[in-house]
Amino acid sequence: MEKFILITCLLSCPILVFGTEGIRECPGLPVPQFVNISGCDKAPCALKRGQNAEMISGFLSNEYSDNLKTRAYFREIESGVAGEFPLPNDKGNTCDWLVSTTCPIYPTEDVTFMLSMPVLLIYPKNMDLDLKITVENEDKTILTCFQVLAYTT
């Protein structure tokens, strides 16, 4: 039911027509076909503590993959401190969040996935971040990657 509600919300948002402005490529890695972050027309995007940051993205698969994992990384702009946002297992298993397809995925397949990333209350307020989101397969090959500026509220 949670997945249905998330799909309905994301697909009904006008942001999906235009996408989120300010999405950046990850140098040397495959780029997504689109990225739409709910509630964010243009970066930097607000991450509300105590809520989930929700997005939908699509990419063209470049190889066969049985399993997919979404990973989220951050760099705090002022201090330069960097790390990985720990995603709960139920959120990081990309195969569970695919739209109109299932794992395994095949070369040249259009893949659309959703991410609902918890923004915990313990995160400091007013933190400026550079986020990097990747989807990797069982061999740790990155199939898509994007970066976006964000801040916590």
UniProtKB/TrEMBL annotation:
Q: One biological process GO term for this chain?
A: sterol transport
Q: What are the record's GO terms for cellular component?
A: extracellular region
Q: Family membership, please give it.
A: Belongs to the NPC2 family.
- GO MF entry, a single one: sterol binding
Pfam entry (one): E1_DerP2_DerF2
Origin: domain of life: Eukaryota
Q: Which InterPro entries match?
A: Ig_E-set, ML_dom, NPC2-like
Q: Which keywords label this protein?
A: Secreted, Signal
- What is this protein's name? CSON001914 protein
Any idea where this protein resides? Secreted
User: Domain MD-2-related lipid-recognition, which positions?
Assistant: 23-150
Could you tell me which PANTHER family the record lists for this protein? NIEMANN PICK TYPE C2 PROTEIN NPC2-RELATED, NIEMANN-PICK TYPE C-2C-RELATED
Q: Signal peptide position in this chain?
A: 1-19
What gene is this protein translated from?
CSON001914
